[in-house]
Sequence to fold (199 residues):
Amino acid sequence: MCTGKCARCIGLVLLPLSIICIIANVLLIFPSAEKEWTDHITLQVWLMGGLVGGGLMVLCPACSAVRAGGKGCCGAGCCGNRCRMLRSVFSSLFGTLGALYCLTVSSTALANGPLCDVGGGDWQQPFLNTNHSYLTNQTLWAICQNPPNIVVWNVSLFSILLIASVIELVFCGLQVVNGCIGVFCGDCRKKSRRDDDDL
Fold:
């Protein structure tokens, strides 16, 4: 596969993943999809791993990779697509940092568990610093009385962020390699195809 086509495919994979991360993080701000619980969310939600890391920081390399599949600043001749490929390499390194940030925040959030009312208005993280994982023992989830179904809400959304960030990490890494190949070796597409692919 040509480096330009590969870059575009990678960008088209990263683009929806970054949007998914943004949506998942926004939903985490509203526990159980209700506004009344927004003042009882964990530090990991406020760190905005999905919104900033897996979202905005990956959105930039996604767009850059898609554009790298188009015609370069010097047209079909001269440097061809190498300028955009070089830019996509640096953008993808930036996206890798964002994906790592999202991965770290999400994994920590899953390990610590949600903030919830365990009864009588006592808000705490009941699964924090326990000897066993609450993720494999769903009977423990009943400890959290409010917000309703908060454990399922947090586990589902942070799992989405975790999986998405791992995929983003892989594809950003692939684009770094692909972009470097594109910079040094150029684009193998024919001139007639470059005009068709130009954004």
Notes: The CA atoms of residues 31 and 37 lie 6 Å apart. Residues 72-78, 191-195 have pLDDT under 50 and may be disordered.
